[in-house]
């Protein structure tokens, strides 16, 4: 293991042993004793561009009672090739991994410290007695996250959402109205808590958290992403030769980078909220809960940027056209509920009409994100209809 001042950072599944797991869990579960660890193997869901995700069960006792904890360890793997952008550098991988470590170890505890328990109960999870105490509603419980400064290896130990009934929807299948509604609510909680913390502390989040990704951090990879966009646009043009005018418009713009110079109110955004990074729990065929995973690219942006990506990269025409207003209204309601009635600045005065206008403006960002993913989200007639509607907003 690569060691830090406190707890070692495992390099492989062989390093995940009872004594190490006990150290990891003791902060959240004082008095726990781990006697055995059963490694279940790698989890294949999602792209796993940068990490190995090892599922394991930890067995032991706490307060005289036998316990079994279903967990995953997310480990840095510098040898793992990027599926989409193999030109991205090791330095960027390290930057992204440490961003997620800091998100879990620094930001999440502070978000939870300003959360309104009453608002959490209203969100529909008050009957889930198996959720670890102190967990938030929009992401998995993380017990430990750290980076070794010498090796730059990182680890995050989290609850195993799959064993709690969560799964990622198969690629190529658009999210339903109910799934988008749940995801929009999760984003509203993230945005609301980050803004609430900023108001309470009186410090802008980029000043408080120097690990948040900035436009300068992603400038190098944007060249690669722009190349991918242009390449995939040619494939789109070949698939839809009757859309020459639309393609010509799409060819004219380059990567729409949302920057810190944007004068709008900003929050901590996920920035990568597409189907591989959203896990759903179902009761029968009905989705009842959503969790957001993979926080390596968290940025300080207008909240509508997350929503634009969510819709353009994850929905079909019916949800985008017929249910968009209802979903944005739901997001706005959860956002205000999360902020609470005592916050009188910033997003508390953010109207639904402003949200809708910002959403339309940021759909250009969503379109760019969709096109760089076209190899895993193939173009179809629904995408064409969505693009034509966005074109009608004079965004394209």
From TrEMBL:
<protein>
    <submittedName>
        <fullName>Uncharacterized protein LOC118422423</fullName>
    </submittedName>
</protein>
<dbReference type="InterPro" id="IPR015897">
    <property type="entry name" value="CHK_kinase-like"/>
</dbReference>
<feature type="domain" description="CHK kinase-like">
    <location>
        <begin position="156"/>
        <end position="341"/>
    </location>
</feature>
<dbReference type="Pfam" id="PF02958">
    <property type="entry name" value="EcKL"/>
</dbReference>
<dbReference type="InterPro" id="IPR004119">
    <property type="entry name" value="EcKL"/>
</dbReference>
<dbReference type="InterPro" id="IPR011009">
    <property type="entry name" value="Kinase-like_dom_sf"/>
</dbReference>
């Amino acid at each position: 293991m690569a060691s830090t001042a406190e707890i070692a950072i495992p390099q492989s599944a062989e390093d995940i042993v009872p004594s190490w797991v006990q150290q990891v869990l003791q902060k959240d579960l004082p008095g726990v004793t781990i006697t055995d660890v059963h490694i279940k193997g790698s989890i294949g869901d999602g792209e796993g561009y940068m990490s190995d995700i090892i599922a394991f069960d930890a067995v032991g006792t706490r307060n005289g009672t036998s316990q079994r904890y279903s967990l995953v360890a997310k480990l840095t793997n510098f040898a793992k090739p990027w599926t989409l952008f193999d030109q991205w550098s090791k330095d960027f991988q390290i930057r992204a991994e440490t961003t997620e470590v800091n998100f879990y170890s620094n930001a999440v505890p502070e978000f939870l410290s300003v959360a309104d328990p009453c608002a959490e109960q209203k969100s529909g999870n008050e009957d889930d007695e198996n959720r670890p105490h102190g967990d938030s509603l929009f992401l998995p419980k993380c017990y430990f996250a750290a980076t070794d400064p010498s090796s730059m290896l990182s680890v995050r130990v989290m609850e195993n959402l799959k064993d709690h009934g969560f799964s990622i929807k198969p690629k190529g299948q658009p999210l339903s109205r109910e799934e988008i509604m749940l995801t929009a609510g999760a984003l509203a909680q993230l945005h609301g808590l980050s803004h609430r913390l900023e108001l309470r502390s009186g410090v802008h989040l980029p000043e408080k958290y120097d690990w948040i990704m900035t436009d300068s951090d992603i400038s190098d990879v944007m060249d690669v992403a722009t190349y991918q966009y242009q390449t995939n646009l040619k494939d789109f043009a070949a698939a839809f030769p009757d859309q020459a005018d639309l393609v010509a418009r799409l060819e004219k713009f380059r990567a729409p980078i949302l920057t810190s110079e944007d004068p709008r109110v900003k929050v901590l955004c996920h920035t990568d909220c597409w189907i591989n990074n959203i896990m759903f729990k179902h009761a029968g065929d009905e989705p009842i809960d959503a969790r957001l995973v993979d926080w390596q690219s968290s940025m300080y942006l207008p909240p509508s940027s997350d929503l634009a990506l969510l819709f353009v990269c994850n929905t079909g025409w019916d949800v985008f056209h017929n249910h968009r207003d209802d979903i944005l209204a739901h997001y706005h309601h959860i956002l205000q509920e999360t902020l609470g009635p005592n916050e009188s600045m910033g997003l508390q005065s953010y109207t639904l009409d402003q949200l809708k206008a910002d959403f339309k403006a940021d759909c250009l960002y969503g379109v760019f994100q969709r096109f760089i993913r076209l190899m895993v989200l193939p173009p179809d007639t629904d995408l064409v209809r969505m693009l034509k509607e966005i074109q009608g907003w004079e965004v394209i």
